[in-house]
């Protein structure tokens, strides 16, 4: 819809997102004695969130929501990943997934202003067009946006081929035309199997629902 309407599309990445988060509870961790040996046996109180906390995702999301509210953006009821801000004829949508985001708007000046505002609170890397985000490649063709996860699929294959030290694909046939056969090979480890299924599930959620 944004492409067909010729809206401005920008994407961005927030560096070390979780480290920006404020805490709404007291959290103590073991002191970093590798750097301060005199702190042996002591604990330290965190002033901000850090990677490794069980609540890191929640703290970050609440912090980002507070920034959006400050900028007059409201989260959509049906999808909390989408924020919207309207003023007169100007419309801005912001989609956010952890630390990756996309902005859609019919007003270039409003987009430029939002970029400045977000940079005041975060360290942000910007791109003026949407090419790749959350392992999905985007290519604009006329009035449409083509989505592909070919690169990500290749990464999955290469990663597990390195771990197994053998090729995973025995044929170049395209699914679902390929007739699947039961393999009598050596069973793989449970964790490895779960990792493979998890990677394939990410493809299913993105662009390859046919794999389900």
UniProtKB/TrEMBL annotation:
Pfam families documented for this protein: RVT_2 (PF07727)
Entry superkingdom: Eukaryota
Descriptive protein name: Reverse transcriptase Ty1/copia-type domain-containing protein
Residue ranges constituting the Reverse transcriptase Ty1/copia-type domain according to the UniProt record: 1-166
Native species: Austropuccinia psidii MF-1
InterPro entries noted in UniProt: RVT_2
């Amino acid at each position: 819809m944004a492409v067909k309407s010729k809206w401005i599309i920008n994407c961005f990445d927030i560096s070390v997102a979780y480290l920006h988060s404020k805490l709404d509870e007291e959290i103590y961790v073991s002191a970093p004695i590798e750097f301060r040996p005199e702190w042996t046996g002591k604990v330290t109180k965190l002033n901000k969130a850090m990677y490794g906390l069980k609540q890191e995702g929640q703290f970050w999301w609440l912090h980002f929501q507070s920034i959006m509210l400050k900028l007059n953006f409201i989260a959509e009821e049906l999808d909390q990943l989408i924020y919207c801000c309207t003023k007169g004829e100007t419309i801005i949508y912001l989609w956010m997934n952890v630390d990756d985001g996309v902005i859609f708007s019919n007003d270039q000046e409003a987009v430029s202003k939002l970029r400045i505002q977000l940079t005041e609170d975060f360290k942000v890397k910007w791109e003026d067009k949407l090419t790749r985000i959350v392992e999905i490649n985007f290519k604009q063709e006329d009035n449409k946006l083509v989505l592909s996860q070919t690169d990500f699929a290749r990464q999955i294959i290469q990663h597990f081929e390195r771990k197994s030290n053998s090729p995973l694909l025995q044929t170049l046939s395209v699914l679902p035309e390929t007739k699947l056969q039961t393999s009598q090979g050596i069973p793989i480890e449970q964790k490895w199997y779960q990792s493979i299924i998890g990677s394939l599930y990410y493809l299913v959620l993105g662009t390859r629902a046919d794999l389900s």
